[in-house]
């Protein structure tokens, strides 16, 4: 691993084709700080990379409705986006009324995972993003990452949902205890990542940001050496390992930094902009 300075690739001949990069960018803690603010430096650097002809793809744990404002702020009108930790992939198209279409949606049955988690975390809040984009939640659980207002339902209604993403949050349980509880039951048959504040995201088995990005890389006929990813959370680990150039933010936990090939500045030092400018 190395601290990021400059990066150059060899064997590249045509800027628009063989030199085109697939640049996957996490949102929270990478493009925006933990108050949701994006600096002008980060926004301008992202726009410059888009203007240079690279494929900039927002890859986030946020659901679709919470991802679109970030896409709009950067000014992306074409290309792709990965939402819900790989559960939803969209294709941007300015000719469509919504400006996008969903091209892939990975669903699963949440029953086994939810039942196990309810047994060890009876006071936790639960939410499920279902196939049509709606959110269902217990105890009026709402969060900005949902992108829409969740509909409050009984826990039992969540069990039979066709899920894209499951969220579990325990407001009063310390993170270390929360992690130990989740790891203790193992959650077989799904992929999951623990966040910063006793927060758990669950997706279908084998579904991560990396799995969605790999499908897009193949669709775009780009080589693995053309892939760049920037992130700061444990849900970015697979993406950082997948990318030829995986860059962890300076404030990322050690386990995330160990998955990267480089470390850039923190989100408060515009670390993402440093990486983006290095591509120009």
UniProtKB/TrEMBL annotation:
Keywords: Hydrolase. Signal peptide: none annotated. SUPFAM superfamilies: HAD-like (SSF56784). Pfam families: Hydrolase_3. InterPro entries: HAD-like_sf (IPR036412), HAD-SF_hydro_IIB (IPR006379), HAD_sf (IPR023214). GO terms for cellular component: cytosol. It comes from the Bacteria. GO terms for molecular function: magnesium ion binding; phosphatase activity. NCBIfam families: HAD-SF-IIB. This is Hydrolase (HAD superfamily).
């Amino acid at each position: 691993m190395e601290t990021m300075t400059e990066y150059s690739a060899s064997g590249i001949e045509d800027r628009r084709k063989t030199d085109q990069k697939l640049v996957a960018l996490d949102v929270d803690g990478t493009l925006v700080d933990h108050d949701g603010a994006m600096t002008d430096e980060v926004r301008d650097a992202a726009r410059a990379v888009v203007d240079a002809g690279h494929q900039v793809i927002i890859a986030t744990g946020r659901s679709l409705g919470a991802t679109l404002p970030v896409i709009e702020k950067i000014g992306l009108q074409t290309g792709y986006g990965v939402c819900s930790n790989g559960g939803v992939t969209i294709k941007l198209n300015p000719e469509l009324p919504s400006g996008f279409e969903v091209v892939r949606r990975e669903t699963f049955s949440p029953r086994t995972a939810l039942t196990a988690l309810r047994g060890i975390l009876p006071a936790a809040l639960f939410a499920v993003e279902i196939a049509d984009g709606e959110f269902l939640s217990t105890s009026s659980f709402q969060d900005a990452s949902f992108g829409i207002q969740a509909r409050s339902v009984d826990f039992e209604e969540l069990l039979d949902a066709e899920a894209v993403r499951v969220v579990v949050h325990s407001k009063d349980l310390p993170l270390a205890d929360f992690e130990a509880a989740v790891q203790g039951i193992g959650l077989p048959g799904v992929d999951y990542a623990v966040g910063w504040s006793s927060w758990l995201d669950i997706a279908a088995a084998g579904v991560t940001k990396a799995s969605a990005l790999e499908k897009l890389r193949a669709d775009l006929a780009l080589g693995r050496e053309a892939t760049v990813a920037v992130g700061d959370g444990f849900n970015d680990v697979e993406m950082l390992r997948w990318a030829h150039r995986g860059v962890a933010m300076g404030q990322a936990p050690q386990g995330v930094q160990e998955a990267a090939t480089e470390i850039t500045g923190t989100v408060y030092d515009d670390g993402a902009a440093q990486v983006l400018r290095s591509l120009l």
